[in-house]
């Protein structure tokens, strides 16, 4: 049952439209609709506002600006990113483009949006700093990163090692702004009744949303219920409170009727966080036989002064390969661009894209096969934590992948293989992702009528949580999956850490299995002997039904996390064809081989990994959001212009999971896989483009324009 690729249990609900998402919820009766108006400047002050026409427009119930919005708790940049207040419409200061300046509630969405368009705003526009490269020298090294790790780590003497060489690489690689665009837009239906706020919202973590809302609205947490039963994708964009949720909640409390607010696709660019643009300096030194003697990764990223966010870009370089001399550090360059946030595989996605490109350059200089170079620098001990690495199977992934992919057939000389107009190249990269764990509780109830119900405030953001928890509970109790019902994503259920950082599946599966253990022990004790029919024993001894909870420890309390460097591993292989005349790049095939512990559901796991690999491809070849350096606005702020791969860009692609069980992760031997597929895979594509053309593009994404000048004639 565990491991079996059963279909999603919520699949039929989704394909028949019975899975109801936040904006479609009808639970609160007829709602009003809100629309957010954003600033049309990047930096300055509001000098005058005229809302008269909007207030008089048909159907309008309320128009708020900073002059009349309800009082909220002030924003404090305290360490708890989830529990802090997120106030809106608090002042006349515009410090990023698109910042909410007004909010209209009306009887229909169309009326609210039309009225918002009638608001006259005048601004005093000030010059802003919008370009990272231009302001990079103002970057400030960070002692601690937003999510906790040290900003800088240093071992040995990297400058000396770089001077001694003998073979070195030192280059700058840049990665652009990225956005998460889940299919389901950010949306909230808020309903204030009798002093209680019920919030139907698309969120990755419900308890954390409740904490932020309680702080903002100055309510007690017990006055708020959050429900995110179905979520249409998150990728980091639904980890934090945003304007639509805060304003919907404020409005329902003010008006006493349910209020719905939906962001448009374009508003994701201005009201939801992005991955920051990053300038990476990579330094590598090696002996002629390819042993790394120095590893350096400096990351200088866009930040927003009042609300900084560190993408942990260089942290993956700390654990990836052995080398005695090491330096990794992160700098924030504060620009007048709104705060960055978590975007799928924060840190590893850009970090490995550039690091694995640099390692490819080193292999080229050394004349060593890139698979062999990676295996030669493999390590069982985390080079910086000095701890054994759990289930470190990087070399297994590289070897298995090379065999399956036919790596032997790789052109050893760049730009040496042609098929008509096409130049053919192969590339490889290592994949690695930190494995996290957080305090989680799951409650299970066995009903005598023959049903098991699993309760957790964990979310299923399209990943398969409903299905895998049913599998774990069914296996843990020895009942068919069809007799298990999983209830998720409501704040009245036991606390989890939700879906984020690839931790959700392991956190909640471990707690589910522990609850099953306790239930089995209780039933066995009551039965006095072994038993065959679980439900018969429950009917006999527990006619009211039987409940138990299971817990997963916080990583700080779990010795596995102090004794081992906790990660997942993989290797990615890509073959590309590049048109020798036009530079058109076509991915031909791609393979990822992963070691991520025990797999609970082969089908949902494969979907996660393949989805991640597509993000990797996208980072190498497609995605970049561009800021207008004059106005601070997003030049390509919609999905017509923000390039992402379509089906035609993704040909034969496969993800293989090594048969694995990581006894040092937890008693189920499982780890997170959500983001692993996006970690490193882009490097394989970039390295394949180099192998095909002999052109190294260090500014991502690789585009025709960057490739063309260097193409062989
Ligand atoms: Mo993660 S950035 O919550 O996909």
Outline:
This protein has 713 residues and is of the alpha+beta class. It has 18 helices and 25 strands.
Describe the structure.
- The mean pLDDT is 97.
- This protein has 18 helices and 25 strands.
- The longest helix has 24 residues, at 504-527.
- The chain is α+β, with helices and mostly antiparallel strands and 713 residues long.
- The protein folds into three domains: 15-126 and 182-271, 2-Layer Sandwich (Aldehyde Oxidoreductase, domain 4); 137-177 and 275-435 and 562-710, Aldehyde Oxidoreductase, domain 4 (2-Layer Sandwich); 437-554, Aldehyde oxidase/xanthine dehydrogenase, molybdopterin binding domain (Aldehyde Oxidoreductase, domain 4, 2-Layer Sandwich), CATH 3.30.365.
- A seven-stranded mixed sheet has the order 3-5-1-13-10-11-12, with helices on both faces.
- 26% of the residues lie in helices and 24% in strands.
- α9 (348-366) runs parallel beside α17 and α16 (602-621) crosses α17 (681-693).
- The structure holds dioxothiomolybdenum(VI) ion (MOS).
- Dioxothiomolybdenum(VI) ion is lined by residues 204, 234-236, 239, 342-344, 346, 500-501, 675.
